[in-house]
Amino acid sequence: MTNTASPVPSPATLIEDQALSREQMESLIESGAPLAFERCDFEGVDLSRLVLRDCEFSACSFIEASLFAASLSRTVWQGCRARQADFESADLTDARFQSCDLNNTRWRRAKLAAAFFKGCKLTGANFEEVAHLGLKFEDTLLVSANLQRLSFRKLQLQDLNFSDANLSGCDF
Question: Tens digit of pLDDT for each residue in 75-86?
Answer without folding.
Answer: 999 999 999 999
